[in-house]
């Protein structure tokens, strides 16, 4: 556990909290005696994560309306982000899993890694209070915010659709034309077509983002202000 504490930048007074945070239900159900799963900690960690992130973006984006604050928070605390954070800490290496979950690749399963990050956060909160928990979260979130731009909040697809609807005989479709990269870090390529003509292409870490980028390119090529 010393190696993990070093990665976390936090020394536990009660190391059992950290052990509990790393105990998956499959292991607790197999061993039973003396072990409880990290599910309750995950529940608490989810709330701690939400309040830390909400507090930060509320204070640092004073002119952002509620709807956009919600979108920004969701992008920062989604399963994909939490998995990335978890992998940076190599939490999968420290998890206690049941035999079946171990054989099934549980150490790399997105849902398990995301839950483990929240459980470890709760363990830090219970052991040291809100301030070390906040520091732990913000180590990751601040870096994530550096990669966040206005694209998160703009709906280019709707803007394009509103323009196309002026001509009822025209139809717009989005076609997935490629994907690359490992399962946990894929990149998707999408074409947007007006009838059968390609009017824009876009790439993104998920299909929705790729579609938005394709719509953005189409709008730019049409001379629309972005």
Would you give an account of this structure?
58% of the residues lie in helices and 11% in strands. With 226 residues, the chain is mainly α. It has a three-stranded antiparallel sheet with strand order 1-2-3, with helices on one face. Strand 2 and strand 3 form a beta hairpin. Helix 4 (39-60) packs across helix 9. The radius of gyration is 21 Å and the shape is elongated.
Strand arrangement in the largest pleated sheet: 1-2-3
The arrangement of helices and strands along the chain is HHHHHHHHHHEEEH
The main sheet comes to:
3 strands, antiparallel
Count of helices?
11
Layout of secondary structure:
Elements: H1 2-8, H2 15-21, H3 25-31, H4 39-60, H5 66-77, H6 79-88, H7 99-103, H8 110-128, H9 130-146, H10 156-164, E1 172-180, E2 187-194, E3 197-204, H11 207-221
Helix pairs in contact: 2-8, 4-5, 4-8, 4-9, 6-8, 8-9, 10-11
Q: What are the salient characteristics of this protein?
A:
single chain, 226 residues, mainly alpha, three-stranded antiparallel β-sheet, 11 helices, 3 strands, 58% helix, 11% strand
């Amino acid at each position: 556990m010393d190696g993990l504490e070093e990665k976390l930048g936090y020394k536990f007074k009660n190391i059992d909290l950290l052990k509990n945070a790393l105990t998956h239900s499959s292991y607790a159900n197999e061993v039973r005696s003396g072990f409880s799963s990290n599910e309750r900690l995950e529940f608490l960690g989810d709330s701690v994560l939400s309040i830390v992130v909400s507090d930060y973006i509320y204070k640092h984006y004073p002119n952002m309306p509620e709807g956009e604050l919600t979108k920004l928070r969701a992008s920062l605390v989604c399963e994909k982000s939490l998995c990335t954070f978890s992998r940076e800490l190599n939490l999968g290496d420290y998890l206690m899993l049941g035999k079946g979950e171990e054989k099934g690749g549980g150490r790399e399963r997105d849902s398990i890694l995301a839950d483990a990050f929240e459980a470890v956060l709760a363990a830090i909160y219970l052991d040291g209070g809100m301030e070390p928990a906040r520091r732990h979260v913000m180590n990751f979130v601040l870096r994530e915010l550096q990669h966040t731009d206005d694209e998160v909040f703009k709906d280019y697809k709707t803007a394009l659709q509103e323009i196309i609807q002026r001509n009822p005989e025209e139809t717009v479709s989005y076609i997935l034309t490629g994907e690359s990269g490992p399962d946990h870090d894929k990149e998707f390529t999408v074409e947007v077509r007006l009838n059968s003509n390609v009017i824009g292409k876009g790439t993104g870490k998920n299909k929705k983002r790729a579609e938005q980028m394709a719509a953005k390119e189409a709008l730019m090529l049409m001379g629309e202000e972005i």
